[in-house]
Amino acid sequence: MKRIPLIKPYITDEVKAKVCEVLDSGYLTEGPVTKDLEDALRDYIGCSFAIAVCNCTVGLELALRAVGVGPGDEVIVPDYTYPATADVVRIVGAKVVIVDIDRETMLIDYDAVERAITPHTKAVIPVSIFGNPLDYDRLNRVKERYQLLVIEDAACSLGAKYRETCVGNLADISVFSLHPRKFITTGEGGVVTTNNRQWAEWMLSYKHFGMVTHRSRLTASFDKIGTNYKLSSIQAAVGLVQMRHIDELLRKRRELSERYYRLLAGMQRISFPKTTLNGTHSWQSCCIFVENRNQIMEKLAQHNIETQIGTYSLHIHKAFSQNEACQILGDMGGSRYVFERCLTLPLYHELDENDQDCVVQQLLDVMR
Fold first, then answer.
1. Pair 204, 42: CB distance under 8 Å
2. Which residues 6+ apart lie within 8 Å of 346 measured at CB?
3. Cβ neighbours of residue 240 closer than 8 Å, sequence gap 6 or more
4. Residues near 146 by Cβ (< 8 Å), separated by ≥ 6?
5. Domain map of the chain by residue range?
6. Which CATH number fits domain 1-368: 3.40.640.10, 3.10.270.10, 3.40.50.150, 1.10.1060.10?
7. How does pLDDT run across 91-141, given as a tens digit for each residue?
């Protein structure tokens, strides 16, 4: 039986030719092609600054350092997310405060955020999970009332919009992933976006060892301690070509996801997450809710169909539950519900309707 994977990166002859062009140039580290990718992302999102980094996790760390989050500060994160969202808070020395999510949207519970705020709260890292945009109107009211910073974990949300504004142009700083599971990928990589010049310049310097360039000097100076979070031109070449086709890739993902939902609508024991009101989903992942999720995944795998869980509930892992620098607030009922039921279906540009029909039919068969 034909194998249907969870995802296939969009790697075409055009992509391969661009990578070979970089290899032939001899300029393999971060250089002009990386700058071209940053420009393409900045222009598409509509933000003032886009900074490529070697992965999304260091991008989140970079954002927290740029706004001055550190020891003595508290940062609120959702329980239902990949551990990196919380890891970076501890990496910069701040306290992690973990709150529940809304089980219908899988997004952070905004009421829980308000209940978690203390005089030490400096920022919140909401996750626009799987490409579902946040309710930025609601989030901004909380931000303004309590004078918080919003550092958005937008790992999966390139192409998503809220009220027709692109994600990446709505929070103080947003950080995207360019991991191979993302439909725009550089193998490993990420991009940080902001409209704040001071933060952007700080991040650009920090990711280049603290370097500052001067037009009037032949050599650079190093004004701060920094590190190397650069993205090579070889990697950037892959994402740069994919960005030329982003509208087509988004359209295909949206069509396939909506077709999944049409085919599965009305089926017993299957339900669907809700998209944020006034939001446009990017469909990085197409998720459904089912009971006995793990058994279903195992049975589908026996039929050569790859599926996956959504992501993780942090509070059940000892890295967070047994850590004095992490505080877990609430019973996490929403997070547990989603963690136990969320099933991610195969979704990629080459997936055709026949393969999709096969996925749906096998899913319904194993659920019987």
1. no
2. 4, 5, 6, 7, 305, 306, 307, 355, 356, 359
3. 18, 33, 36, 37, 40
4. 114, 117, 121
5. 1-368
6. 3.40.640.10
7. 999 999 999 999 999 999 999 999 999 999 999 999 999 999 999 999 999
